Automatic annotation (TrEMBL):
Transmembrane segments: none annotated. Gene3D superfamilies: NAD(P)-binding Rossmann-like Domain (3.40.50.720). It comes from Rhodohalobacter mucosus. PANTHER family: ALCOHOL DEHYDROGENASE. Keywords: Oxidoreductase. Belongs to the short-chain dehydrogenases/reductases (SDR) family. InterPro entries: NAD(P)-bd_dom_sf (IPR036291), SDR_fam (IPR002347). This is NAD(P)-dependent oxidoreductase.
Length: 258
């Protein structure tokens, strides 16, 4: 019987937003499973550090590329520069910026979320997808959010971008209908990463308050589920997985110890 790890051994995995959090954790999990990695992100020094750590720990090949996924030409140049076939694309790059009402939110926050969470994700799907279709194999895993399944106050644009990820994932599966290309999503709730610090523009105290009195998910929790999604038999396509900590029951229902 073929094991999960054996299904992944030797696969080439491209992970966007790999400099921290879920992306970094996913890189370690795929390396442990015997995959070669292509990691992208904006912070070159972080990528270099992660590359060194993974190669010394797991002995697997790691290629790194530093660019902003919002820049379509940079995405195109990156894809044209890689020679290896991408077996698995983990579209992880994304962010929340601001937590404000629709009538007073910052336009720059909106642009950052739309350009990263939607356009950046689409850039990679559009540029990596043709080769997958041509060879009739591959797997695209988009990182969504509970915010893609329900909305909440002051999060209109972030929720909108993650609803878009959900719709794009579903429609892309239909676009690849009749091929062996798989399309999936993983949609977490509260995960203790840099997410809230980024949302609150570096206000670490405010970011810590998001997780006060409750046990959030970890980046490793989500990385395990990404790996599980990727390692199913070739005829199995997991469309989406909504993952919440026990202390969370919806976007806005969070149990906190007093």
């Amino acid at each position: 019987m073929v094991t999960s790890d054996e299904r992944l051994t030797g696969k080439q995995v491209l992970i966007t937003g790999a400099t921290a959090g879920i992306g970094e954790a996913a890189a370690h999990h795929f390396a442990r499973a015997g995959c070669s990695l292509i990691l992208t992100g904006r912070r070159k020094n972080r990528l270099e550090s992660i590359k060194s750590e993974i190669e010394s720990t797991f002995g697997t090949e790691v290629q790194i590329f530093s660019f902003d996924i919002r820049n379509r030409q940079a995405c195109r140049s990156f894809v044209e520069s890689i020679t290896a076939e991408v077996d698995i694309l983990v579209n992880n790059a994304g962010l929340a910026s601001g937590l404000d009402p629709i009538d007073s939110a910052d336009f720059d926050d909106w642009d950052a979320m739309i350009d990263t969470n939607v356009k950046g994700l689409l850039n990679m799907m559009r540029l990596i997808g043709p080769a997958m279709r041509k060879r009739n194999s591959g797997h695209i895993i988009n990182i969504g959010s509970i915010a893609g399944h329900e909305a909440y106050a002051n999060g209109s644009v972030y929720c909108g971008t993650k609803h878009a990820v959900k719709a794009i994932t579903q429609a892309a599966k239909m676009d690849f209908h009749g091929t062996n290309v798989r399309v999936s999503a993983v949609s977490p709730g509260l995960v203790d990463t840099e997410f809230s610090e980024v949302r609150f523009h570096g206000d670490t105290e405010k970011a810590r308050g998001v997780y006060d009195g409750m046990q959030p998910l970890t980046a490793d929790d989500i990385a395990e589920i990404i790996l599980f999604t990727a390692s199913r038999p070739a005829h199995v396509n997991i469309m989406d997985t909504i993952v919440l900590p026990v202390d969370q029951s919806s976007s806005t229902m969070v149990h906190r110890n007093s």
